[in-house]
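In this supplementary section we document a worked example of the pipeline. Step one takes a protein sequence of length 261 as its only input; no multiple sequence alignment statistics are reported here. Step two produces a three-dimensional model, which step three serialises into structure tokens for compact storage. The input and output of this example are shown verbatim.
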Amino acid sequence: MDDTLLTSDLQISERTVNALQKLAAQKIFIVICTGRLHKGIEPFVRRLSLPQNEFSKYAILSNGSSIFDLQEKREIFSRKLDYEILLRVKEEAAHLNLPCQVYDSENIFANVENDFSRKDVALTKMELKIPEDFDSFLKQGFSKILVPGDECVIKELFGILQNALGTSATVVISKPFFLEVLPQNSGKGEALEILTERLGIKMQDVMAFGDSMNDETMILKSGLSVAMRNGLQTIQDEAKFVTRFSNDEDGVADFLEEFVL
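The serialised model returned by step three reads:
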């Protein structure tokens, strides 16, 4: 969604809405794939005004660790991180003076209130809560843990966690200032494989748009992968196609109009 479907001021243009509605009319599945949780995408789902049928009911949330039925408002697949991993991430972040936060469908839970958590609340309209004993609170398990911070410090933490966690979890820098840790073998691409298998669709027939490293598995696994012109060079190099225009210039809509509709 961010920097792909959404403009820099977090809007979906009328042109993009029209393009996606035309796809839906052709009975093409439209699946939002995002790091956000359900409440954080509700305004954009309403904005798209897609038909209430099987072709627009699914969303991949939390960067791939959750598949959600938007119409029945329930999770149909999820993976959660073990407590030991959550605690290790929190401790390694603390060593670098970085906060961290986890989520459920309605709330943001941070170990300390910080500038990012306040911005996240304003952006997603979710409620911020600071558990009294954050370490114990983590024992219930969560689908991801996010660490925000300065780009250079985030890169340092990325290396530390990759070495510390190995193959027991997925570590990704979703934006230069966001590091996220997900359950093992989680990612948007892996979630798409699970969903498409349920729907009887081959991954070679999936078109996926993305811009950043949290989109990488989706770009690598989709037969018709499309990188945004404003996306990271790595993603552009890995994708089959690159849009002619950025997210602020209706890049998704332009590509769909030119090559699909």
